[in-house]
Design goal:
Layout lengths: L3 E3 L7 E4 L4 E8 L4 H15 L6 E11 L1 H19 L3 E9 L3 H13 L4 E6 L2
Parallel strand pairs: 3-4, 4-5, 5-6
Antiparallel strand pairs: 1-2, 2-3
């Protein structure tokens, strides 16, 4: 299985999904077409779910995302939830800047929807 590595731009986050169970999503997510941007990531998680690592850590460090991205991020989290329900360890580490209550609240909203452990991690600005 190939890793996915996408360099971030002003409108899209950097992505690094490795089949060792370390998945990273970082930056801004305001792509022209969110579904098109996130589809390869959802597909990758589908394939990864066929033989995941014993532990999967997802590091989400977004400074901003738009509404269409939020739906796509939820789709990623649902894939992770299904991996978790197969009996595999999955944790989502949600990073937010110390003064960014909106991003903290977004993480808490996802946490209330998805039955995967979340770890809220405050970072300094």
């Amino acid at each position: 299985m190939k890793e996915i590595k996408i360099d971030g731009t002003a409108k899209t986050p950097s992505v690094h999904f490795i089949d060792d169970g370390q998945l990273h999503l970082k930056g801004r997510s305001i792509p022209e077409n969110s579904i098109e941007f996130y589809k390869p990531l959802v597909d990758w998680l589908d394939e990864y779910g066929n033989g995941p690592q014993a532990k999967t850590e997802v590091h989400v460090q977004l400074e901003y995302f738009n509404t269409s991205s939020s739906k796509c991020i939820l789709d990623l989290f649902k894939k992770l939830e299904s991996i978790s329900k197969q009996g595999h360890d999955v944790i989502i580490k949600w990073y937010y800047e110390e003064d960014d209550e909106d991003m903290l609240e977004a993480g808490e909203d996802y946490q209330s929807i998805i039955s995967v452990p979340f770890e809220m991690i405050e970072t300094e600005v």
